[in-house]
Amino acid sequence: xxxxxxxxxxLADLKQVQRTLAETREREAAxxxxxxxxxxxxxxxxxxxxxxxxxxxxxxxxxxxxxAPLPPAxxxxxxxxxxxxxxxxxxxxxxDVTTLLDVDNAMSFRRPGIGTDVTARLRKGxxxxxxxxxxxxxxxxxxxxxxxxxxxNASKQGLRCVRVVHGKGLGSPGRQPVLKTKAQRWxxxxxxxxxxxxxxxxxxxxxxxxxxxxxxxx
Length: 218
Known about the structure:
The protein has helices at 8-53, 77-88, 116-124, 140-156, 178-189, and strands at 101-102, 108-110, 132-134, 161-165, 193-198, 208-213. It is of the alpha+beta class. Helix 4 packs parallel to helix 5 (178-189).
């Protein structure tokens, strides 16, 4: 018996398969060609860069040099000395000044070895007042700290004559000049102070002291 001829449907399917295979081969060939072109372009660019910079050689590594350690932070020696000095010169409220004061119409104080002519000249205003501290309204501990710091800084600046305003004590209990008495005690305990007198009426009178400081050593 003779074989049957393929149907038209089978032939159409075969042609479709052939077309699909052909399209696939064409697409793969195009992708391969594009890839090859890109690789050639990249190689050409690398070759162009190499020709432009010329021959090269690796950098020689320099021998490492050990760095000296950072120096330690400077010790604030002067600050420490100032703090130690403050501790040594802590001012006492119980210091007895009765034997050190010259009590007259205008109370005064002078260190041993300082003549009465110094306090007399101080009363006359022969030294110009170069600074002042006002202790009005401060509590005792605040006033002590303020006065100590003021005298210390004034001495550092080389000031010779300053005024300390302590008030007349009119607002204190019993209208007693408590701060005035304490200011005298504190000043006598300060090594920078060599003399003080009650201020003239125009400079505060009984509510202030004019203080003479020792010359600053250079």
